[in-house]
Amino acid sequence: MQPTQRTEEERKRINGKRSFGTEDKSGASNVRLTEAICGGGCYPLDELRNESPLGDEVGVGDEISTEKTIGQPELALREVKSKKFQKREGICVDDINGGKEAFPICAVNTIDDEKPPSFTYITKIMYPDWYHPVPPKGCDCVGRCSDRRCSCAFKNDGEIPYNHNGAIVEAKPLVYECAPSCRCPPSCYNRVTQNGMKIDLEIFKIESRGWGVRSLSSISSGSFICEYIGELLEDTEAEKRTGNDECLFDIGPNYNDCTKPSLGENVLYNQEDKRMPHIILFAAENIPPLQELTYHYNYAVDTVHDSDGNIKIKSCYCGSSECTGRLY
Ligand SMILES: C[S@@+](CC[C@H](N)C(=O)[O-])C[C@H]1O[C@@H](n2cnc3c(N)ncnc32)[C@H](O)[C@@H]1O
Predict the structure, then answer these.
(1) CA 298 / ligand 1 centre spacing (Å)
(2) Taxonomically, which superkingdom (predicted)?
C-alpha cells in the first residue's frame, strides 16, 4: 500500500537487515517481513518486493529509497536511540503518562516553546456512573484457542481475528477478544489490545496541525498501536464540561486527521455492550519510524454546526493527495 501523505524520496544506505517470520490468514508461516536497518532506523522492505532490485535481494551496503513526509520536522533516529545523547533536542515533557504505561511517552517540540496542554492521563475507559459493564461468558478453551473450537472465535465469524504476531488480519466491524473471564491463559493470541501498548510512541508539535503522534520504530501492517481512551460522557454532560474541566484521556486523542495510516476498530472483551466498544488503532500499512500516525476522523463536509446552527468550516492540512482541503 502507498503512503497517502505527500512524501519526498530519500536515499539511505543499508547497514544491516533483519527478518521476521509472519503468519498469513490460514496460519501458514512462510511469509517473511524483512526490514533494512539504515542509520538508526528500520525500514520495511515489503514495498520493494515488486521492484528491481527485489526487496529480498538488496543487501548491506546497497542504497534504498525511503519516504519522508514533506514538512515533518527533521529528527535523526541515530540521535533518538544513541546513548551519547543524554537529552534529545526539543523534549519538553519527559513522560506525558506519568509512569502509567510500561514505557515513557515524551513530548517533543522543535518549533516553539509551547508545551502540550495539561490533561490527566488515564489507561482505562471511564464509563458514566449509571453504566456497569457486565463481563461476558468466556470461552471454555483449556490451553490454545482455535478457530474451530473457541466460542470467542465463533463470535468473530468463526476465526480468531489476529495472527500469532498479534496483527489484525483484516478490517472488521467488531472484534471480540477472549475475555478475562475466559478459561484460556492470558497469553492467548486472541488477547491483544487488552494487554496494553507495546510500541514506543511520542507526541510532537507540527506547525499546521498542533500536536500529533509518531512512533520511534517501524510498525508493521496490522499491529496494535494504541487505544483511544477517554471519559465517556453523554452529550449534555459533554457540553456542560466544555472549557471547564480538565480533560482525561490517553495518547489516542492526540491523533490528527488523515485517511491513513491507522485503522480504527471496535473491540469488545470486558463487556459485550456494542454501544461501548474499545476504540483501537491498528496500523493500516507498514509505517516507517517517525512518520506521523493519523487516522480518518470521517467528518462529512458541511455537517458540523456551531451552537447557533451555523455550518462550521475547518481547513485540513494533512497534505494527502486525496485530501479535499476540508476537515469539516
Ligand atoms: C483530536 S485533536 C488532535 C490533536 C491536536 N492536533 C492538538 O494539538 O491538540 C483534533 C484537532 O487537531 C487539529 N487537526 C487534526 N487533524 C488536522 C488536519 N489534518 N488539518 C488541520 N488540523 C488538524 C484540529 O484542530 C482538530 O480539531
Answers:
(1) 13
(2) Eukaryota
State pTM to two decimals: 0.78
254 lines ligand 1 (CB under 6 A): yes
> 50-72, pLDDT tens digit by residue?
444 555 566 666 777 666 555 55
Write the pLDDT tens digit of every residue in 89-145: 899 999 999 999 998 999 999 999 999 999 999 999 999 999 999 999 999 999 889
Distance between CA 1 and CA 170 in Å, rounded?
14
Angstrom distance (rounded) from CA 163 to CA 279: 20
Q: What percent of the chain has pLDDT over 90?
A: 60
pLDDT band at 260 (very low <50, low <70, confident <90, very high): confident
How do the residues of the chain divide into helix, strand and coil, expressed in percent and rounded to 5?
10, 30, 65
Rounded Cα distance between 204 and 182, Å, is 39
- From the CA of 212, give the closest atom in ligand 1: 6
253 lines ligand 1 (CB under 6 A): yes
In 3D space, the residue among 272, 279, 274, 276 whose CA is nearest the CA of residue 181 turns out to be 272
CA distance 152 to 137: 9
Cell numbers given for 187: 497469553
Q: Report how far apart the first and last C-alpha atoms of the chain are (Å, whole number).
A: 26
Cα(315) to centroid(ligand 1), Å:
10
Closest by CA position to 147, among listed 92, 187, 113, 190: 190
- Residue 193 main-chain phi, psi, to 5 deg: -75, -25
Residue 190: exposed, middle, or buried by beta-carbon count in 10 A (0-12, 13-18, 19+)? buried
CA–centroid distance, 253 to ligand 1, in Å, is 9
